Amino acid sequence: MSKGISILKANLIANYASQLYVTLVGFAFVPLYVKYLGAEAYGLVGFFATLQALFNLLDLGLSATIARETARYHGGAITDLDYRRLFRVLSLIFFTIALFAGVLLFMFSDVITDHWLNVESLSREDVLLAVKVMAVSVSLRWMSGLYRGVLTGAEKLVWLSGFNALITSLRFIGVFGSMWLWGYSPEIFFIHQLIVAIFEFAGLLIASRALLPSLVGTKVSIGFSFYALRNRVNFALSIAFTSAVWTLVTQADKLILSGILPLSDYGYFTLAVLVAGGILVITGPISGVLLPRMSRLHAENRNEELINLYRRATQWVSLIAVSGVVTLFVCAESLLIAWSGNVELSANAAPILKLYAIGNGFLAIAAFPYYLQYARGNLHYHLVGNIVMLFVLIPIMVFVATYYGAIGAGWVWLGVNGLYLLTWLAYVHQKLEPGLHWKWLRQDVVAISLPAVGVGIFATFIHIPLTNRFEMLLYTAAIGAMTMAATALFSQSVRNKILNHG
To answer: Residue 201 has what pLDDT?
Structure first.
């Protein structure tokens, strides 16, 4: 048990260190992209990110399936042969889908360039080449998800975190070397991203295959049969549908606005959403560590430990997410100015940032019942909840974003995630763990959140003159530290950690 806890801590630390590095590098270099490439070219970068997210629609729940089955394999729930057969089948499926989707996107690059993207100053040839390179890059990066699933399920997150940091350095920092040598243009930027995607794919493939059990000397043939998927179809299809809905929910506004706004304005919108996405970035490492560990605890029939881990993780996510939301809400414009140095951009993006930050905070906490269902291999309630979101959220988002732009999309994002948190979670918890919900909500969410909200309200009534970017950054950091400290005092899990190390 102590070994399992040590692995969990090491994975969590590595995940956070990697995510912190990835986030800081990404945020630090975005203003430079806008400066050297221009806002319109950065709009292409935002569209590239949206395409990568939309490719998740093709996943069909298979990457989550291999991650969970890898965790179950290491928990002794399935045999070496069964696991190898499953990996072989999924590898062929991933390759086929990636090839088909990449070729299709490549073929329609002219349509996207001429009839979807609202290009003003960039040449058609530059944009067309960029879209074609995107098609190959997103296919490779999407297929890498299978191998990430193997590494995640095996809890090799220390290695994976280091590799992610390396890839981030090559993508965000290394690209300036390429552009310095061959020119600051969209073509050079996206060709560089393609080369990095090839390297990333090869590295993950080699690392994941090294973890596969060897069947040498067993006199059995792996063979090829879709029978290996038979017992996982329901779980995979549930993941597939909910992942598709999730992708539509999180990317619909970006896709719609990419066809409405000029690319330069879309680039500014992308900046605001990127900063607000920091809420999910800083809470993401916890879920990345939590899913394989909870799956393994369930496979070993250790339900009490599973629920205790679930509640402790909720407290940590509430602490981090709410502190981040309050900080971004109070310091939105100051942070954007400190980050970008552009006063006009910051004034326009700050209202969008505030709305998306609150919505992302709701989302980070509302995700927890999904983790519980994932560990148990039954996503029925998550599936139903997402069906409702599919038929309610998407039409509203399309309408509001079309007529009210980015601000309207932000209000929809906030409202729907808040409503989901306040209603659906109570029902799901009652079905999965009767008697858990109100204790979970009161002790693990609300009690921790209120102090941070109080600090935020207090901060809005105090006017501190800020004359330069450094002071704005320092002010933002101070508000973040205050909210984090106030929140930590009301978290039993955090207090225990402090006392045990005091």
So the answer is: 92
